[in-house]
Amino acid sequence: MTQQINGQLIAEHNAQAAARVNLDYETLGEQLARRNVDTHVLKDQVARFAVAVPSWGVGTGGTRFARFPGLGEPRHVFDKIQDCGVIQQLVRCTPTVSPHFPWDKVSDYQELRQHAEAHGVGFDAVNSNTFSDQKDQPLSYKFGSLTHADAGVRAQAVAHNLECIDIGKQLGSKALTVWIGDGSNFPGQSHFRRQFERYLDSNRQIYDALPADWRMFLEHKMFEPAFYSTVIQDWGSSLLAAQTLGPKARCLVDLGHHAPNTNIEMIVARLVHARKLAGFHFNDSKYGDDDLDSGSINPFQLFLVFNELVDAAQTGAAEFDPAYMLDQSHNVTDPIESLMTSAVTVQRCYAQALLVDRTALTAYQDSNDVLMAAQTLKQAFHTDVTPLLQKIRMEAGGAADPVLAYRASGYRKQMAAIRPASGPSSGIV
Ligand code: LRH
Ligand code: MN
Ligand code: MN
């Protein structure tokens, strides 16, 4: 295995942290014991939590106005995988990478798979891209892809998705995520119903090509790049499509793809009820699809999403097996640092949601004790589970404080010496 961060450095970092982490962990254990929570059981549960890293997230992002490149950015998917390996080495809860095509296209996928294995990561859902034109692409997606009025463009977009499935098979993936930017910018530009029917027809062809043990994740987004209407703009259209396509199709919730203040946790509950929750693209936002670091703006919302997920798991919700992925863009931070802290934030919310006293909550709900029901959630949310997460990481060979260990390693500087600086450009990723 190719470990990018020196194991000795991590061991020394952890040795320095051990005394305080152990003391804090014991104190937390005492606190939780008073709430009848066995910290060791909790630790085992949280240690099994995993969230995938987006391959496109390790490069510096940008906006449509500008991109300010960072140092030592990955040059290609092999470098991206290497960076993802660093993240996994330090946080130990990101064992897979979600690749995006054609961005991550290579000539030999066995080589890529072996490269990933060597860096201690595997592959999660493959993402197709029919929202931008690629060099040498015969037909343009300017006016749509899977829903384009021209059958030739639709066929090209379908063929790309089929190729993604084929690549995914070679990489060991088990799901295809389809997000399209199709929609319209002016009233009258597109016929809403015919456009949706074309979406279903194209996706039917993709769905039929899925291997038996694969899933198709349909990702909705309210707006952008289309600013008047989007074909799959919300969970309603997504659910309708997933139900029409069949059992392998499910709805993926990207937290940034809703109007501000939307009750996303309730959408999650509805999709669980419908047995159609595919999973998540975690990120945070203030205004729109900001792709900010998970939990950086509204950690309580993330906790409330996990509250629904833990409730679903504990009550044995049917066909409940969500996939967890990050989907963020890092414009002003080191992407590795942002992805590490985000993965830990998501893991933290899971741990906090496991702390909700569900028996008490149900009793308060059933007796209409509004204040105590709300307080029951807040008690779990206010619990600082940092020492628990540190202990889990240290026991798994990760770092007590991933960002500090990463900075001490000098990895970014080393990469800056090897990987040439990219020029400033615009673009979402
Ligand atoms: C669209 C989206 C989708 C894409 C990714 C780059 O906004 O969330 O998941 O594949 O960004
Ligand atoms: Mn997304
Ligand atoms: Mn997005």
UniProtKB/TrEMBL annotation:
Keyword Phosphoprotein part of the UniProt annotation: no
GO molecular function terms listed in the Swiss-Prot or TrEMBL record: isomerase activity
Domain of life according to the entry: Bacteria
Keywords carried by this UniProt record: Isomerase, Manganese, Metal-binding
A Pfam family: AP_endonuc_2
Xylose isomerase-like TIM barrel domain mapped to chain residues: 100-291
PANTHER family hit by this protein: L-RHAMNOSE ISOMERASE (PTHR30268:SF0)
Name of the protein in its database record: L-rhamnose catabolism isomerase
Organism: Rhodoferax mekongensis
